[in-house]
Amino acid sequence: MKLRCFVLATMIAGFAVRTPGQQAAPELVTAIKAGHVVDVENGRVLEKQVILLRGKKIAAIGSDVKIPAGAKVVDLSTKTVLPGLIDCHTHLADGAQKENADPTSQLKKTASQVVLESVVNARVTLESGFTTVRDAGVYRALNDVALRDAINKGYIVGPRMFVAGAYITITGGAGAMTGYAPDIKLATLRT
User: CA 16, CA 13: separation in Å to the nearest integer?
Assistant: First the structure.
């Protein structure tokens, strides 16, 4: 049987942005009815659980959790819910991911084109269960910062990103072409 998983973090994305002077919206309360919950701390799978969210925080998990009146209810009673995964080595903001791609192709595109191609990478990564990533560098400097900021502002869907801004490498090492593109100049350090 194919295990169908649902990542809890995708349920709490997309909160309203308010302008100065606007009253804060009441705290959103969401109850998720989960068929199974993977309890990674105790190494077991719990059955028929209710996950209660208040805003972006988990307030309670259990089979006896009461659902407050007016709460948004998400029925995942036939699904398995697990904590978000973390990928500590990604390159989400390097554009379209093609096998055996020529890294110099990055220099034939504008930074805008590369970061827009990266939007798909962010969505696919989140939908695969990774709610946090550490992006280890990009050929086009600062594209990872732009992608992270767009996710944080709610413009696009993606995981929480910790970014490098550009490759940190030795002269001639992997990622050494960072900054060669005509629209971005980076200082180079020689030792």
Answer: 10
